């Protein structure tokens, strides 16, 4: 192998890898459409759900995605993300359903311990209410196994009981892409078609397929403060505390969620190709590096998933 052929061979191998991941994802998306009566695709406007939606577009075509898009809105989401969510749904002529944690608060089914508490964990309640409202029997999500330890325990077709809870020991075997989709009344599945993707795979696919993203995912200048080893964005919801120094830094978001618990990372990456290079050099998971709510033991992902979280 010489210096001229090596880059071409590496590109070919990368494309073969992405082709295989895409093929698996499209197969699962079609399997959900065939096996369930009332599925929905969880769509936040984040990068993973946008990649999933791109695969759904390839699987079914514009205006032909056979299930609605469902967003559980905390009311504290970045406006750039929700605007992009609405734009993408309109482009694909897809039905978009939005249900809000604030509505659950008004009904009294969600109660905050204090006004500044993050609403992120309370999305579980609103999600379960939406499942009951529409009778969803399968929810397609963009979670990946490499995100953190609890997600690594997930099956692609993750069974949930009549209370919407996830029990790791009750998950069904998945051999040779044979999925057991039988349900009892009141039960449902969470389906994760990009389980086998990594953060690097996602970014390589975004680059190859020219998947549009909210601008927050690329380098931009933002006021931040350093807190517990993280860069916390300074906003009305997350103001600087006494004694903290506000700095304007070049940052990007690796993941986007509720403003009160999502942090950017220092970065000059202004394109998908540059993010790919940065991702190759990181050894910290995106949630571990950017999600304040995942760093506390009482809000561990596994406990939240057992209570009905995504």
**CATH domain topology of the largest domain:** Rossmann fold
Q: What's the shape? A: globular
CATH architecture of the largest domain: 3-Layer(aba) Sandwich
Q: Give me the number of helical elements.
A: 10
Q: Gyration radius, to the nearest Å?
A: 20 Å
**Helical percentage:** 25-40%
Question: What's the main sheet like?
Answer: 6 strands, mixed
Helix and strand composition category = alpha/beta
Percentage beta strand:
5-15%
The figure for the number of domains is 2
- Note poorly predicted spans: 295-299
**What is the name of the CATH superfamily of the largest domain?**
HUPs
N- to C-terminal distance: 46 Å
Mean pLDDT: 87
> What is the helix/strand order?
HEHEHEHHEHEEHEEEEHHH
CATH classification class of the largest domain: Alpha Beta
Strand order in the sheet with the most strands: 3-2-1-4-6-5
Number of beta strands: 10
Descriptive account of the structure:
- This protein has two domains: 5-201 and 299-305, Rossmann fold; 216-295, no CATH class.
- Mean pLDDT is 87; it is low at 295-299.
- The strands form two sheets. A six-stranded mixed β-sheet has the order 3-2-1-4-6-5, with helices on both faces. Strands 8-7-9-10 form a four-stranded antiparallel β-sheet, with no helix packed on it.
- α1 crosses α2.
- It is 36% helix and 15% strand.
- With 310 residues, it is α/β, with parallel strands linked by helices.
- The radius of gyration is 20 Å and the shape is globular.
- The protein starts with a helix and ends with a helix.
